[in-house]
Amino acid sequence: MTDETFAKSSARHRHHWRRDLVELAALFTAVATADAVADTVVHGPDGPVLLISSAGALLATAAFHTWWSRRRGHAPPPAAADPAPGAAARPAPAGGGTALWRMRTTVRDEPGSLAALCLSLADRRVDILALQTHPLADGTVDELLLRAPAALAPAELALAAAGGGGRETWLERADAHDLVDAPTRILGLATRTALDAAELPLALRQLLGRCTIRSIPARSPLTGAPAESVPEDGVWEETVLRLRDPSGGSITIERPYLPFTPTEFARARALVELDARLGPRVPPRSDVLTLPEGNAITVRRAGADDVDAARQMHERCSPATLNRRYHGPVGDADRYLRHLLGPRFGRTLAAHTASGRLVALGHLLWDGNETEVALLVEDEWQRRGVGGELLRRLIAMAGEAGCESVYAVTTASNTGMVAAMRALDLPLDYQIEEGTLVITARLAPVASRTAPQAASRRADG
Q1: Which end of the chain has the lower number of beta carbons within 10 A, N or C?
Q2: Would you report the helix, strand and coil content of the chain in percent, each value rounded to 5?
């Protein structure tokens, strides 16, 4: 028994004797009144007949009341009230489950504009799960996470937004990962960036949605010419953001299908500033592997501190090996290596012997929306399984990063690279152009994040 129930029971027991006294007094009063009336009627003319008639009338009234009460008790419930004149009739909930959508629409910056949008969506049984606002000079961009009936077409959602005052509406399918609120998601991206400098381009892509991110070095690795400088505060140009890279050069973010907002520009700049304050960093994890022939190698992440060891490995490689890797003669190895080992352009794995000598490098390179893999194994350590082990780990890293595919650029004569790609047991596509072979491996969907399915719609209201 709860405390509330016990208190109510105690109150009933405390007031029980008072109710009994009141009922007893009412009974005595009724008896005295009835005795006075009966005495008056009996001593009058036709008194007994009048009493019997009154008793019969009372019995008939009681019987009629009982019959009427039972009849009303079995009556059907009253019909629902008709909607008020001018009110929009809501359609019945659509069957077949629900679907998650991300919507971005621009509304007027005035009281009631968001309420009108919500009512228009509610008329189509669309539930708003999350909302972010991006203030603009001439309005407000509302970003909503919606749960809508599965049968509701994207065009109907766009029309609902237009009916609620929205314009320049954009839609794409969402999934369960989008249910995480924005502050939690941003803090998670900041944590990933703090642990690994190579995570910054990936974090920016997840922060800003489907976009193309390119890291431009301070000097071209081919010609050595300096790149265009970017102001310290960055540049915001509608669908293009340019930010100064703390490690040198710049980061360009493009999203042609949807203009950036000042809020998104500020978030991206804050993430880059965090990376600048933390400085260069590479996770210290390393694994010791035993090759089929019995030799042990150590595989770990490589960074800018490994440039000297990588240059020495290049000097030990034959011209044919370097030509297969770089598709031509290597001019300035230092310039290539500082570019490849930089954290902005991807991730690099290095294989070391038991004595600490660097014998192989594996690169996972961010190339806009695509991802490239490349291997360089010292001649003495080729055909021992080192390259295949590095490649498998690079593919796993690409899957964790949410990449849909990776490609390798080589030649048909590079049988080692072709065999390593085929050993991945993944769907492969081959393209040969002017003697260059491009092998693309399609990765299986990963649990961390699947690429969103775009369903963009615009409705000018």
Answers
A1: N
A2: 40, 25, 35
Residues facing residue 338 across a β-bridge: none
**Distance separating alpha carbons of residues 376 and 297, to the nearest angstrom:** 15
Q: In Å, what is the CA distance from 19 to each residue of 5, 7, 30?
A: 21, 19, 16
Read off the tokens for 209. Answer: 């949605």
For the four alpha carbons of 136, 177, 283 and 391, in that order, the dihedral sign comes to: negative
In CATH, the number for domain 98-176 is: 3.30.70.260
Q: Determine the average pLDDT of the residues in 259-269.
A: 92
Helices 200-208 and 262-278 sit at what angle, rounded to 10 degrees? 160
The Cα 57–Cα 76 span in angstroms is 31
**Mean pLDDT, residues 300-310:** 89
Stated as kind and residue range, the H or E segment containing 216 is: strand 212-216
Q: Is 286-442 the same fold as 98-176? A: no
Phi-psi region of 90 (alpha: psi -120 to 50; beta: other; left: phi over 0): beta
What are the boundaries of each domain within the chain?
98-176, 182-278, 286-442
- The CATH H-level superfamily of 286-442 is Gcn5-related N-acetyltransferase (GNAT) (3.40.630.30)
pLDDT tens digits, 174-226: 887 778 888 888 899 999 889 888 888 888 988 888 888 888 887 776 666 77
CB-count burial class (<10 Å; 0-12, 13-18, 19+) for 199: buried
Cβ-count burial 345-367 (b if 16+ within 10 Å, e if not): bbbbbbbbbeeeebbbbbbbbbe
More confident residue, 35 or 99: 99
Residue 293 DSSP SS3 = coil
Quote the pLDDT of residue 9.
43
Contacts of residue 29, defined as CB under 8 A and 6 or more positions apart, other chains included, come to none
CB environment 148-186: b (16+ within 10 A), e (fewer): bbeebebeebbbbbbbbbbebbbbbebeeebeeeeeeeb
Taking the CA of residue 28 as centre, how many other CA atoms within 13 Å lie in the half-sphere pointing to its CB? 5
CB 249 within 8 A of CB 344: yes
Taking the CA atoms of 172, 176, 177 and 183 in sequence, report the sign of the dihedral they define.
Answer: positive
Residue among 122, 118, 150, 120 nearest 131 (CA):
118
Beta pairing partners, 135: 140
**pLDDT tens, residue by residue, 9-19:** 444 444 455 66
DSSP state of 83: P
Element containing residue 273 per DSSP (H, E) = helix 262-278
